[in-house]
Amino acid sequence: MRIANLNGRAIAVRGTHEGLFGVDIAESSSGQFPPAAIDLTARIPEVVAWEASLKDSAFTIPITLPDLMTPIPNPAQIFAIGMNYADHATEVNIDLPEVPAVFTKFASSLSGPTGRVRMPSDQVDWEVELVAVIGAGGRNISRYEALEHIAGYMIGQDLSDRKLQFAGGTASQFSLGKSYEGFTPVGPWMTTADDISNPGNLTMTCSRQDQVLQSGTTKNLVFDLPYLVEHLSTVVELRPGDLIFTGTPDGVGFGRDPKEFLVAGDELVSTIEGLGELRQTFVASNPLADETNEMELEHA
Q: How many CA atoms lie within 13 A of 150 on its CB side?
């Protein structure tokens, strides 16, 4: 099942990118379920069973990706894992961690599956990631039961302003440098966990125009998702709707020689097997450059 956010309300999605249709979950269930997706995360088995009973004729709302907002707009916590692919740690010349390297992204940076992102500097980088959404929360969750606590999965981009991220030397600003407006696009919907047979073996790509920037698979995670859930829950209480960015494979701009970053007019396309795609277009931070960029985009 795919659960998206249309105008602040959770909808069930069917169809393909060529023809997507949805149904308002709260309205069509006569109030059996609440309208916000975050309030559904702890009840996913019920919602999935309800959706399976719907007739195809119930899906009457035509939708496109630009209509959709971030699926979980107000999570209590957003966790992100650094250096969770060995090749990525190598390319940025950082030692592979012995325990998960955890930082946070702030919820005000969340955005939907499409849209424009303003670049605060000339060092904005890309990082495609598998994002897990917590369903049943709790503390001290065993890795052997961890996947039972996952409501679903999304694509995420952990966009990073490297200039701010590494300002201050050893006191790196990971959370701030990755939390500008629009720096946490996720979606295009939450695919419920029952539809993903093995989250530990999903292929992912990140492309800019015709250039493939990243190509990886979650089977190469250093710390897999069950381990991450167990590790995080020994410290904090995981709550329904929390997001876990599981890490990015190699191919980021900061790790290239010479370094390579996004420029105004770039379109970044992020995909993960079975989860759809994200599309972000980047614009310059100063108004004069924005005007020029707007004209270029209109005539592209």
A: 30
Q: Is 299 a residue whose pLDDT tops 60?
A: no
Closest by CA to 65, choosing from 155, 188, 185, 176, is 188
Q: Pick from 217, 188, 270, 207: which is nearest to 84 by CA?
A: 217
Give DSSP secondary structure letters for 106-136: -GGGEE-SEEEEE-SSS-EE--EEEEEEESS
Measure the CA dihedral 100/74/21/131, to 10°: 0
Higher pLDDT, 87 or 242: 242
Q: What is the Cα–Cα distance from 58 to 204, expressed in whole angstroms?
A: 32
Ordered structural domains, the chain, with CATH: 2-69 (no CATH), 78-298 (3.90.850.10)
Cis peptide before 258 (omega within 30 of 0): yes
Across 24-56, b (16+ Cβ under 10 Å) vs e yields bbbebbeeebeebbbebbbbbeebbebbeeeee
| Across 140-145, average pLDDT | 98
Please enumerate in sequence order all residues whose Cβ is within 8 A of that of 258, keeping only pairs 6 or more positions apart, or say none.
none
Name the residue with tokens 């500097």: 121
Q: What are the tens digits of pLDDT across the range 161-177?
A: 999 988 876 557 888 99
Whether pLDDT at 292 is above 70:
no
Whole-angstrom Cα distance, residue 283 to residue 278? Answer: 17
